[in-house]
Amino acid sequence: MLQFSDPLFWSAVAQIIVIDLVLSGDNAVVIALACRNLAPAQRKLGIFWGVFGAVGLRVVLTAFAALLMDWPWLKVVGGLLLLWIGVKLLVPEQDGDHEIGGASNVWGAVKTIIIADFVMSLDNVIAVAGASHGSIPLLVFGLVVSIPIIVFASQLILKAMERIPLIVTIGAGLLGWVAGAMIFADPGVRPYVAGMPGWAHYGASALGAVLVVLVGWLISRRQAKGYRVLENV
After folding, report:
1. Rounded CA gap, 210 and 162, in Å?
2. DSSP assignment letter at 102
3. How far apart are CA 192 and CA 122, in angstroms?
4. What are the pLDDT digits (tens) for 57-72?
5. What Cα–Cα distance (Å) separates residue 228 from each residue in 90, 93, 162, 216, 225?
6. Domains in the chain: how many in total?
Protein backbone atom coordinates (compact mmCIF):
# COMPACT_ATOMS: atom_id res chain seq x y z
CA MET A 1 0.00 0.00 0.00
CA LEU A 2 1.24 3.49 -0.86
CA GLN A 3 2.27 5.69 2.09
CA PHE A 4 2.30 9.49 2.54
CA SER A 5 6.13 9.47 2.50
CA ASP A 6 6.21 7.56 -0.79
CA PRO A 7 6.77 9.81 -3.86
CA LEU A 8 4.49 7.44 -5.81
CA PHE A 9 1.67 8.40 -3.44
CA TRP A 10 1.92 12.08 -4.34
CA SER A 11 2.42 11.25 -8.00
CA ALA A 12 -0.84 9.26 -7.93
CA VAL A 13 -2.62 12.09 -6.05
CA ALA A 14 -1.45 14.54 -8.74
CA GLN A 15 -2.78 12.20 -11.44
CA ILE A 16 -6.16 11.92 -9.69
CA ILE A 17 -6.44 15.71 -9.33
CA VAL A 18 -5.55 16.37 -12.99
CA ILE A 19 -7.96 13.64 -14.17
CA ASP A 20 -10.75 15.13 -12.03
CA LEU A 21 -10.07 18.65 -13.29
CA VAL A 22 -10.07 17.59 -16.95
CA LEU A 23 -13.03 15.19 -16.80
CA SER A 24 -15.26 17.15 -14.40
CA GLY A 25 -15.70 20.27 -16.50
CA ASP A 26 -19.01 18.92 -17.80
CA ASN A 27 -20.14 18.11 -14.27
CA ALA A 28 -19.49 21.72 -13.23
CA VAL A 29 -21.69 22.90 -16.11
CA VAL A 30 -24.46 20.51 -15.01
CA ILE A 31 -24.36 21.95 -11.47
CA ALA A 32 -24.74 25.48 -12.82
CA LEU A 33 -27.60 24.52 -15.17
CA ALA A 34 -29.53 22.51 -12.57
CA CYS A 35 -29.46 25.38 -10.06
CA ARG A 36 -29.95 28.32 -12.41
CA ASN A 37 -33.66 28.84 -11.61
CA LEU A 38 -33.21 28.83 -7.83
CA ALA A 39 -33.09 31.90 -5.59
CA PRO A 40 -29.53 32.84 -4.47
CA ALA A 41 -29.94 31.31 -0.97
CA GLN A 42 -31.51 28.14 -2.37
CA ARG A 43 -28.85 27.96 -5.08
CA LYS A 44 -26.12 27.62 -2.45
CA LEU A 45 -28.04 24.82 -0.71
CA GLY A 46 -28.68 23.07 -4.03
CA ILE A 47 -25.02 23.22 -5.03
CA PHE A 48 -23.82 22.06 -1.60
CA TRP A 49 -26.16 19.08 -1.21
CA GLY A 50 -25.99 18.17 -4.89
CA VAL A 51 -22.20 18.09 -4.86
CA PHE A 52 -22.17 16.30 -1.47
CA GLY A 53 -24.45 13.55 -2.78
CA ALA A 54 -22.65 13.26 -6.11
CA VAL A 55 -19.22 13.07 -4.46
CA GLY A 56 -20.40 10.44 -1.96
CA LEU A 57 -21.82 8.32 -4.76
CA ARG A 58 -18.67 8.73 -6.83
CA VAL A 59 -16.41 7.70 -3.92
CA VAL A 60 -18.46 4.51 -3.42
CA LEU A 61 -18.46 3.65 -7.13
CA THR A 62 -14.76 4.39 -7.55
CA ALA A 63 -13.82 2.39 -4.44
CA PHE A 64 -15.85 -0.53 -5.77
CA ALA A 65 -14.13 -0.25 -9.16
CA ALA A 66 -10.70 -0.06 -7.51
CA LEU A 67 -11.37 -3.25 -5.52
CA LEU A 68 -12.31 -5.09 -8.73
CA MET A 69 -9.11 -4.06 -10.49
CA ASP A 70 -7.32 -7.20 -9.23
CA TRP A 71 -9.53 -9.44 -11.35
CA PRO A 72 -7.64 -10.87 -14.36
CA TRP A 73 -8.24 -9.00 -17.64
CA LEU A 74 -10.45 -6.37 -15.98
CA LYS A 75 -7.65 -3.80 -16.11
CA VAL A 76 -7.25 -4.56 -19.82
CA VAL A 77 -10.93 -3.81 -20.39
CA GLY A 78 -10.73 -0.68 -18.23
CA GLY A 79 -7.53 0.43 -19.97
CA LEU A 80 -9.04 0.04 -23.44
CA LEU A 81 -12.13 1.95 -22.33
CA LEU A 82 -9.90 4.65 -20.87
CA LEU A 83 -8.01 4.94 -24.17
CA TRP A 84 -11.33 5.56 -25.90
CA ILE A 85 -12.33 8.14 -23.26
CA GLY A 86 -9.03 9.97 -23.77
CA VAL A 87 -9.53 10.08 -27.53
CA LYS A 88 -13.13 11.26 -27.07
CA LEU A 89 -11.85 14.08 -24.85
CA LEU A 90 -9.84 15.46 -27.79
CA VAL A 91 -12.70 15.29 -30.31
CA PRO A 92 -14.86 18.46 -30.46
CA GLU A 93 -18.26 18.06 -28.79
CA GLN A 94 -21.51 18.31 -30.74
CA ASP A 95 -24.04 21.03 -29.95
CA GLY A 96 -26.75 20.21 -27.43
CA ASP A 97 -24.62 18.12 -25.09
CA HIS A 98 -25.86 19.92 -21.99
CA GLU A 99 -29.66 19.96 -22.27
CA ILE A 100 -30.24 20.06 -18.51
CA GLY A 101 -33.42 21.67 -17.24
CA GLY A 102 -33.25 24.06 -14.31
CA ALA A 103 -35.08 22.80 -11.21
CA SER A 104 -37.68 24.88 -9.38
CA ASN A 105 -36.72 23.71 -5.87
CA VAL A 106 -33.60 22.69 -3.94
CA TRP A 107 -34.25 18.93 -3.83
CA GLY A 108 -35.17 18.88 -7.50
CA ALA A 109 -31.80 20.46 -8.27
CA VAL A 110 -30.01 18.02 -5.92
CA LYS A 111 -31.68 15.06 -7.65
CA THR A 112 -30.74 16.40 -11.10
CA ILE A 113 -27.11 16.94 -10.08
CA ILE A 114 -26.72 13.46 -8.54
CA ILE A 115 -28.38 11.62 -11.46
CA ALA A 116 -26.47 13.59 -14.11
CA ASP A 117 -23.19 13.12 -12.25
CA PHE A 118 -23.84 9.37 -11.99
CA VAL A 119 -24.52 9.12 -15.73
CA MET A 120 -21.57 11.30 -16.74
CA SER A 121 -18.94 10.02 -14.29
CA LEU A 122 -18.17 6.57 -15.72
CA ASP A 123 -15.03 7.92 -17.37
CA ASN A 124 -13.96 9.62 -14.15
CA VAL A 125 -14.59 6.50 -12.03
CA ILE A 126 -12.51 4.26 -14.32
CA ALA A 127 -9.66 6.76 -14.65
CA VAL A 128 -9.41 7.53 -10.91
CA ALA A 129 -9.67 3.83 -10.01
CA GLY A 130 -6.71 3.13 -12.31
CA ALA A 131 -4.66 6.05 -10.97
CA SER A 132 -5.25 5.02 -7.34
CA HIS A 133 -3.42 1.68 -7.80
CA GLY A 134 -6.15 -0.05 -5.79
CA SER A 135 -5.50 2.04 -2.65
CA ILE A 136 -8.80 3.19 -1.10
CA PRO A 137 -7.16 5.80 1.23
CA LEU A 138 -5.28 7.24 -1.75
CA LEU A 139 -8.47 7.29 -3.80
CA VAL A 140 -10.47 9.08 -1.09
CA PHE A 141 -7.61 11.52 -0.37
CA GLY A 142 -7.26 12.42 -4.05
CA LEU A 143 -11.00 12.97 -4.48
CA VAL A 144 -11.30 14.98 -1.27
CA VAL A 145 -8.51 17.29 -2.45
CA SER A 146 -9.73 17.70 -6.03
CA ILE A 147 -13.53 18.03 -5.60
CA PRO A 148 -13.43 21.37 -3.70
CA ILE A 149 -11.12 22.74 -6.39
CA ILE A 150 -13.64 21.74 -9.05
CA VAL A 151 -16.62 23.21 -7.15
CA PHE A 152 -15.07 26.56 -6.26
CA ALA A 153 -12.99 27.08 -9.40
CA SER A 154 -15.12 25.35 -12.02
CA GLN A 155 -15.69 28.46 -14.12
CA LEU A 156 -11.99 29.35 -14.07
CA ILE A 157 -11.12 25.79 -15.05
CA LEU A 158 -13.59 25.80 -17.94
CA LYS A 159 -12.32 29.15 -19.23
CA ALA A 160 -8.70 28.00 -18.94
CA MET A 161 -9.48 24.88 -20.97
CA GLU A 162 -11.15 26.97 -23.65
CA ARG A 163 -8.27 29.45 -23.86
CA ILE A 164 -5.44 26.93 -23.51
CA PRO A 165 -6.34 23.74 -25.44
CA LEU A 166 -2.98 22.27 -24.39
CA ILE A 167 -4.49 21.60 -20.93
CA VAL A 168 -7.04 19.23 -22.46
CA THR A 169 -4.35 17.57 -24.58
CA ILE A 170 -2.19 17.00 -21.49
CA GLY A 171 -5.20 15.59 -19.65
CA ALA A 172 -6.03 13.23 -22.51
CA GLY A 173 -2.40 12.13 -22.65
CA LEU A 174 -2.51 11.44 -18.92
CA LEU A 175 -5.56 9.20 -19.43
CA GLY A 176 -3.60 7.31 -22.08
CA TRP A 177 -0.65 7.03 -19.68
CA VAL A 178 -2.88 5.57 -16.94
CA ALA A 179 -4.54 3.23 -19.48
CA GLY A 180 -1.17 1.89 -20.66
CA ALA A 181 -0.08 1.29 -17.07
CA MET A 182 -3.39 -0.45 -16.25
CA ILE A 183 -3.14 -2.82 -19.20
CA PHE A 184 0.52 -3.64 -18.47
CA ALA A 185 -0.23 -4.32 -14.77
CA ASP A 186 -3.23 -6.58 -15.39
CA PRO A 187 -2.84 -9.97 -13.61
CA GLY A 188 -3.76 -11.72 -16.84
CA VAL A 189 -1.04 -9.89 -18.77
CA ARG A 190 1.76 -10.34 -16.20
CA PRO A 191 2.84 -13.83 -17.37
CA TYR A 192 3.39 -12.45 -20.88
CA VAL A 193 5.51 -9.48 -19.76
CA ALA A 194 7.42 -11.17 -16.90
CA GLY A 195 10.69 -11.27 -18.83
CA MET A 196 10.64 -7.63 -19.91
CA PRO A 197 13.05 -5.03 -18.44
CA GLY A 198 12.01 -2.90 -15.47
CA TRP A 199 11.37 0.19 -17.58
CA ALA A 200 8.87 -1.62 -19.81
CA HIS A 201 5.87 -0.40 -17.78
CA TYR A 202 6.94 3.20 -18.49
CA GLY A 203 7.10 2.30 -22.17
CA ALA A 204 3.54 0.92 -22.02
CA SER A 205 2.34 4.09 -20.31
CA ALA A 206 4.09 6.33 -22.84
CA LEU A 207 2.65 4.26 -25.71
CA GLY A 208 -0.86 4.74 -24.31
CA ALA A 209 -0.35 8.51 -24.02
CA VAL A 210 1.01 8.84 -27.56
CA LEU A 211 -1.76 6.64 -28.97
CA VAL A 212 -4.53 8.74 -27.40
CA VAL A 213 -3.09 12.09 -28.53
CA LEU A 214 -2.31 10.83 -32.04
CA VAL A 215 -5.70 9.17 -32.66
CA GLY A 216 -7.56 12.12 -31.14
CA TRP A 217 -5.63 14.55 -33.34
CA LEU A 218 -6.31 12.49 -36.48
CA ILE A 219 -10.06 12.25 -35.77
CA SER A 220 -10.31 15.97 -34.97
CA ARG A 221 -8.44 16.81 -38.17
CA ARG A 222 -10.76 14.59 -40.23
CA GLN A 223 -13.83 16.18 -38.64
CA ALA A 224 -12.47 19.67 -39.35
CA LYS A 225 -11.97 18.75 -43.02
CA GLY A 226 -15.54 17.41 -43.15
CA TYR A 227 -16.93 20.66 -41.71
CA ARG A 228 -15.01 22.71 -44.27
CA VAL A 229 -16.38 20.57 -47.11
CA LEU A 230 -19.95 21.04 -45.85
CA GLU A 231 -19.48 24.81 -45.56
CA ASN A 232 -18.31 25.00 -49.18
CA VAL A 233 -21.30 23.04 -50.51
Report:
1. 22
2. P
3. 29
4. 777 877 777 777 778 8
5. 19, 16, 21, 18, 5
6. 1
